[in-house]
Amino acid sequence: MEEKIKNLEENFYKDLSLAKTIVELENIRVKYLGRKSELVYLFSELKNLSQNDKVIYGKKLNSLKENFTNSLNEKIKNIPQEEDYLDLTLPSISPKRAGLHILTIVTNKICNIFKELGFKIVEGNEIEDEWHNFTALNIPLEHPSRDAFDTFYLDIERDKNKFLLRSHTSPSQIRVMENYKVPFKIISPGRVYRPDKVDASHSFMFHQIEGFAVDKDLNFSHLKGVLLYFAKEFFSKDINLRFRPHFFPFTEPSAEVDISCFFCKNTQKEKCTVCKGKGFIEILGCGMIHPNVLENCKIDSKKYKGFAFGMGVDRIAMLKYRIDDIRLFYENDIKFLEQF
Amino acid sequence: MRFNLNFIKEFIEIDIEPTKLKDSLTMAGMEVEHIEKVEGDWVFEVEITSNRYDWLSMVGIAREISAILNKKMNIKYPKIKEKQVLERKIIIENQNDCPFYVGRVIKNIKVKDSPEYIYKNLKCTLNSINNNVVDITNYCMLKWGNPLHAFDEDKIEGNIYIRRAKNNEKFIGIDGKEYTLKEENLVISDDKKIIALAGIMGAKNTEITKDTKNVFLEAAIFSPITIRRSKRVVGIDTESSYRFERKVFYKNLEFASIEATSLLEKFADGFYYGYKEVPKKPIIKEKKIIISISSLNNYLGTNIKRKNIVGILKRLDFKIKTKKDKLIVSQPLYRLDIDREVDIYEEVARLYGYNNIETRIPPTSVNPEIRSNYDFKNEIKNLLVNLGFNEIISYSIVAQKELERLKYYNFIKLVNPLREEENALRVDLILSMIKTIRYNLNRKRENLKFFELANVYFKENNKIYEKPTLCISVIGELENFFYLKGSIEEILKLLVDNFYFKEDRLNNFDNALKIFKENTYIGFLGKLNKIVLEDFDIKTNIFFANLDIEVLENLKSHKFYKPFSIYPSIWHDISLTISKNVKFKEIENIIKSKPYITDIKIINIYKTKDTEVFTIRIFYQSDQRTLTSQEINTIHNSIREELAKLNGVIIK
After folding, report:
1. What is the DSSP secondary structure assignment for residue B373, as one 8-state letter?
2. pLDDT tens digits, residue range A82-132?
3. Going by CATH, does the domain composed of B2-69 fall within 3.30.56.10?
4. How many domains does chain A have?
5. Which of A193, A228, A291 sits opposite B342 (nearest CB)?
6. ipTM value of the model?
7. B372 vs A101: CB contact, 8 Å cut-off?
8. Is the peptide bond preceding residue A253 cis, with omega within 30 degrees of 0?
9. Is domain B570-651 annotated with CATH 3.50.30.20?
10. Domain extent at residue A319
11. In A, which residues are within 8 Å of B375 by CB distance?
């Protein structure tokens, strides 16, 4: 009896280990646990044993039956059912994510960095007058310094003041300075307009962000600090800025700011299509607010100083995301929009 | 502006590499675009900012280089022995247009090629070579920055007048083109004819030809504004107008005129005959600006020593007197751009090097009064993105024609549009949205859900409006009107309590729902009508919603947590046939008037020719207890009975 039980056990586990499908396992169940199985035969043999052996082998056979059943069930559980089986190599069904326009994303990113530095967001007006767009900003109405600001005029005139579509976001400076008391730190994003023929790099409408601060103890080194903080946060920690003297009527001193090329990192810059071999890319204009501008807004320029800067959002977005045609922003092709 | 190194080397010794010089100039504010080798010389292409008229000359550029390299300049200022005063009268009509005019006559000249050094310098810079006479005037303009003009003396008839043109007076320039002048144009004329468009271009009738024997050489100061307006009328920019627009400096004008005279004697074999100047030599006073060392350092955030400041300013030709902790500074007379202390600070900063100034984070000071709705707009945008709408940004400038097609008339027009397609400001975002959708449909993009949040602009009662507006649109199989309605509800639920829809008719829409809270109009949604769709060649239905952002912001109320029921919700369905003249709203109102109704949903609609079969699922729930089926059946039956009483409704 002892031997028969041992053989039976060995054969069962051997067969079990080889079985791979539900069908095979069912066959094993019939073979080892079915009505005509060896086990049933062994049970029937018990009656021929001594009382003592009857008890011992009875127990053994019962536990054998239990083990067989459990092992089979365990193995069956681990074999996936036919109808549960998934072909995981089928292509995915894409859920459609929607998104903000890339210009909004970039604008928000930029504004949020300045918010960390205590700047507040204020939007200006798109319809402006000559005073806010030019005169108050120390841009004489008839001077070559205005050539950089070709402007769309509107069919509205009030008290000899001509209305126009702002050609930059700097009028926001004047609006804030006229309406609020110092001090302030403002970041002002928005649409601006210039009569430029549309091509891959020009548009009659584009976006700018103006930033400025006025307080008692501000100076040029603060302007540099703020812009360096911004550039490192926005582009990359390992970039540098280069400040070049420049001329803007509304700031003095004025500077143009270049960022060290974040693509070629100055290695192999000869081949770089982004900085075109210069190693630097111009990203914004800035300076200390001209005292004439403060005075135009009735702020005491002896007591208060300020700095200001302005940048083109479209241009920065194009640089950062390698978008090679400004028209893509305004065509709103869903294939473009859904990439961001 | 281009300059060549050999020209500059006439005034200053340069012993650094051209690429080094390129960087130094750029970092001092004279941006070098690129450098190249021409005729064995180095040519620099630089961008001159509009304040630095003095850099529009070789002498000016040399001065800057001398300041950067800290090297002495070596300029020979030309001198001449003045001759007799000409008999010809020179009459200036208005001295505001022309404060000073000097003419010199050089006789018996020979028109031929220029000497090599003039030829080479012009080739590298203007890249324009004429004859010795014209080349000499150009050479002197380049050197000193002041334009000159040479007339054929024998073709000038009588006196010279500096006057405004008469309207429609004609002028043929040395470019051979005819220009029709206006009163804005300042001209030089003789007794009979116009001989130059002042400060811009000479006339064909008096130009230097190979037969010219005697030359009348003009040097003058013209008003920058006058020249600016004049060149705009004729639409030409010349080397001459470019410089006059940016002011010219009297002393350099004298040098240019005198040197040109000497060169005409030397290289055109002429002799200086006589001159006339009107009204008289301008007197230029030295300006004094007082700066303090500490103010300068406070402004820049630096700690530059007095010695260094004085050194930098001296290199730039400033005269300096010291008075306690202050400096009394006088700029060189040719620096017409220096006006206040800050201008001096900039001069010091740029030669000290902007990149040597430290970087600091400014102290925080916040003005709590300043508010804006920027964050609210972003909140709305994010809600829409969460609902699966993509943001678009489209042009604010559209075609008047298209606005009129949509029956808008209160739009603001551009006075100087680039083209007809963009000549007016949009009164509504719908037009741009339609065009965006058409653009995508033409590219076979389907199932579109877009929104734009931007300003619209219009005039009303002599007032200008610029209003932030939200436009939402859906198009496609799944995205129908009710999807849009649901999206609007989903947004408004979060912002406004108790808003409601009211049916109404609107321009351009088949029908529309207006959205209100109490009596306040928030916006509308609707289905664009066929005529508009056909106009824009679109073959699918478009559904629109338009919401006023300012109104929404004003209505926005704070949301508190609302407890929700923990007892089971039970639903029962009703199927009913509704004829076309019954509005669903009537059915909804009856159902919602009953107790314990938390929601109703349409789970099936089947349309026949003039009826619709609806299966409505009604949800019952109490927030106090579990409702018994008996209770619910009683309510449900009463709904059935009441609905059955409605005309045109059959309960199934």
Report:
1. S
2. 667 777 888 888 788 899 999 999 999 999 999 999 999 999 999 999 999
3. yes
4. 2
5. A291
6. 0.89
7. no
8. yes
9. no
10. 102-337
11. 121
